Amino acid sequence: MELSRLSRRAFSALAGTTVLGLALGGSASGGALPASGAPGPVPTGPPPGPPGADGVRHRVALDRHSLLVDGRRLTLWSGELHPFRLPSPSLWRDVLQKMRAYGFNAVCVRLAWAHHSPAPGRYDFTGVRDLDLFLRTAAETGLYVVLHPGPYIGADVDAGGLPGWLTATGARARTTDPAYLRHAEEWLTRVNAIAARHQFTRGTGTVLLYRVDAPPRALTHLHEKVRADGIDVPVLPDDLPLARAEAAGIRDAAEARRVHLAHLAQGVTLHNVRTAFGGTSWGWLPAPSAPTPTYDPTAPIDEARRPTDRLAPLHQLGHLLRHVPGFTRLEEAPEVRASDARIQVRHLTDPDTGTHAYVLRNDSATDVTSTLPMGGTDVRVTVPARDAKLFATGLHLGAGRKLAYATVQPMVSLSVGRLDIAAFVGRAGEMAHLVLDCPEEPWPTRLDEAAAWAYDQGRLHVTVPLGEDRLTRVRVRSAGSDRTLLLLFADDAASLRLWPYETPSGRVLVRGPALLRDVTLDGATIRLTGDTVDEHELEVWAPRGITHVTWNGEAVQASVGRGLSLMTVWPLPGVTEPALPALDGWRRRTENPESRPGYDDSGWTVADRRTSNSTTPVPAGQPVLFADDYGFHYGDVWYRGRLTGASGLESVSLTYRTGARGLLMAWLDGEPLGTHRPGREADAKGTGTWTATAGFRVPQELREALRERPDAGGSRVRSPAHSPVLSVLVRRTQHDQDAYRAARGLASVAFEGASPRVHWRIRGVAAPDPVRGPLNNGGLYGERHGWHLPGYDDGGWEPVSLASSASFPRQDRRQGVTWYRTTFRLDVPPDVDASIGLVLDDDPARDHRVQVFLNGWNMGEYAGGGTGAPQTFVLPNGILRTRAAANTLALAVLADGRSASGPGTVRLKLLGSAAGGVPVTPVASPGRR
């Protein structure tokens, strides 16, 4: 987690204008304008409406409290989503809609330069790299965009997002090196040409902020370049002139509350959840720091696009900041202490609304009950162990009603027609106590059995035991107002069924479904779209005149209930889970002909360079063997060295450099020497660059054969083509995020018993996949010949019968690569969104690697020899054909020869399903021609 602040002077130098109280862009003239359009501080009030490409110019400014959009205060509650980690553009809409529904008002977007650029001067913004489509979708969803194109982004991607080809140019990234700046400017020019068309200031999109990464001495230069490209929204470095905070690695809901409420108490109004959706580090995308395909297992929306238990606090806080005025301009208030010192208290107030906020935190290992002075009363409160709570006093809840105090957190306060609705949330099992200032005795009505109330000395006391996934409603009327107040009390689970929504005709509150995606008011009909998982009732609070309800295009029967809502007569149906086929009909073929002495490597690149652009020193007296110097930046790399003078050779020592989960295999004249890999500890730590020397003894029979060959040092000289061949396969060449120019691949070779001369050739990926991109393929023989692609003719391969329902036979033991292929069909109904995974499981004693390809897309790597826990690969819809179409699954297994080469257990698994979803367009997956 991160909290940062930049000085006014530093930021003024960056922006070229005074920070506090001045606009940073978006005016017609491009000049500086007063933030509020009037002297004095901007008061707290309703935030600006949901953003969109509305064709209207907007002003974006800031002061010491918050962003100002068209003179209104905006607390930014953003979640990070990496489009490159979800290679299915249709699903971008799904996740963005979920983020908006769960309370986010902005999406923070990082762009990986490597994902778009396979070579210098070549850029691709089509297909799964369509930035224009993503920005349009974000605008249609009603989310602001914080755009971060780097050039360096970190994000646990290979080289921090820098393209592999940059490692071979000698350019020193993230410095003022002119060679680097030329490449970086070219990248930003391509991004900015798209981003400029989607700026919120111009009314043509929702890009609100732009972040550039550069060292301080180059920041002004890149800032000027971005401005020259037409970017007129605020351009921000790593820090901002007001408090900004990021949170990552949150383990559970309690920690989410502690972290985010602490940020709120520190006056943060620019919040970012990193990451809101973790996604998949598919192909050769992941950096050594996070080598597994699942990028962020702590994300509140998981890799399968499902909500997790960390989401409820974010949902509640996001809607609080959106729908409850009084939490944007918080200032320090007089100190307040709980009677038990284990509860830490931060007291803040909004001078405009009179709202007081109390952030309570308990870092102890036990629940703590104490008293806290709030609203003129000592209130009994309980804070669970290692948890936090937010309480409020003085909160206006509609016409003439004010909150004295409550032991539950406010989530929503909005007006719908003649109804004022206030929702409060807490943990299941707690007793909620809410007190309203009511000068006149009100007329409460209990709509659910659990609620109780009492009126005493001008205050209405309401108590509600919070049940598991249960909403409790209390209606309050009084003679002094023609408006009714509806109080809603929910635990975490029930809060995730409350969906506030803003339409051009007024606000709406929906309760019941698993997700609300969209709301349209059409005459007397409210049209709702969303998802259901379990059967559940639907309740709608809508503006006056709405009498009919549709759900996903179908009319549902509804009537007005006691809560002045439209309540469906029959519950919405749940989802029927689709059946998944067993994976059978496999075919198998071994490869690695590169290990055979007679293999024709004449078309391979000669590895004879003597200098390198790597930061790794070249061993004295040896040629450069680093893969990047020969243009092979991703995946597996093969080396073949022809030995002259090898008579008497006893052992070979191979020094190689990889990231986590690296691997080396070696053969001499076709005979396996052995396999070497990093230790499990290095893999677990995500070691950035791992260097080791693999020492192999030459087998006795092979030593005798070398001594008997006259070309191995005898009097006769034979052609190098008939010399002994040392073949080496190295996995893998992923680059460290920071030391991105550290060498990958084979580094040097040493011999004992002889000193042969070596003539080296190297081979990696054949060419970047024009559709799937440069990060999809490596240098295995099967990849170079399309074995992973749909349409490849595997009819001549050996059929494989499964030994059990999903296990492969284990009789084959060989060092090298074996491929398995099969096809399968799914028949998921068109109105069902099913998230499906591929589960690989095996004996933890078997240390091998399995590369998974679905319809030619590299879904990532399974690494055996770990904890023994199954690994699940999420198969994104779009790449996965779910509507009665064939899918091709290919597995490339690298085995060390000591254990069987089969991949173990392979099966499909339903990770989640919902009735609803978004239309999914198949992702282009060209096959073998």
TrEMBL record:
Per UniProt, the keywords (alphabetical) are:
Glycoprotein, Glycosidase, Hydrolase, Signal
| Any matching Pfam family | Glyco_hydro_35
* Amino acid composition bias (Pro residues), ranges on this chain: 40-51
Give the catalytic activity: Hydrolysis of terminal non-reducing beta-D-galactose residues in beta-D-galactosides
List the Gene3D superfamilies hit by this protein, alphabetically. Answer: Beta-galactosidase, domain 2 (2.102.20.10), Beta-galactosidase, domain 3 (2.60.390.10), Galactose-binding domain-like (2.60.120.260), Glycosidases (3.20.20.80)
Q: Which domain of life is it from?
A: Bacteria
EC number from the UniProt entry: 3.2.1.23
Does the record bear Transferase in its keywords? Answer: no
Q: Is Signal given among the entry's keywords?
A: yes
Q: Where is the signal peptide?
A: none
Give one GO molecular function term: beta-galactosidase activity
Query: InterPro entries from the entry?
Result: Betagal_dom2, Betagal_dom2_sf, BetaGal_dom3, BetaGal_dom3_sf, BetaGal_jelly_roll_dom, Galactose-bd-like_sf, GH, Gly_Hdrlase_35_cat
| Similarity field | Belongs to the glycosyl hydrolase 35 family.
Descriptive protein name: beta-galactosidase
Q: Which organism encodes this protein? A: Streptomyces lancefieldiae
Q: What is the lineage of its organism?
A: Bacteria, Bacillati, Actinomycetota, Actinomycetes, Kitasatosporales
